[in-house]
Design goal:
This protein is mainly beta. The chain contains two helices and seven strands, in the order βααββββββ. It has a seven-stranded antiparallel beta sheet. The chain starts with a strand and ends with a strand.
Length: 100
């Protein structure tokens, strides 16, 4: 399994960052590899590439404005993603870790 980590400061309020990340309609803005997203329920969604290749995501933890975790799986990979968020006034620190 390979683990990657991204830490950054985004010059936007935490509520805007959180909202943009979780808004299904924004996927094509910040994720160019996503053609569409199908929400199954509050814990499961499927992202499709522009060519229709699906990846299933199962939410394993949510603490609004603090943490979002999910498992992801398709025919080529399986893994886990953790997103941690910290408000710094008008900025947001993010810490994203992915193990695939």
């Amino acid at each position: 399994m390979t683990t990657t980590n991204i830490k950054a400061t985004i010059q936007k309020d935490l509520h805007k960052v959180w909202g943009a990340l979780l808004a299904e309609e924004n996927d094509s803005i910040w994720r160019r590899d996503v053609g569409k997203t199908e929400v199954i329920d509050e814990k499961k969604f499927i992202e499709y590439t522009g060519k229709g290749y699906p990846t299933t995501f199962t939410v394993t933890a949510v603490e609004p404005y603090k943490r979002w975790e999910f498992d992801m799986e398709n025919s080529n990979m399986r893994g886990h993603w953790i997103g941690a968020f910290v408000s710094r006034g008008s900025e947001t620190e993010i810490d994203f870790t992915q193990s695939v």
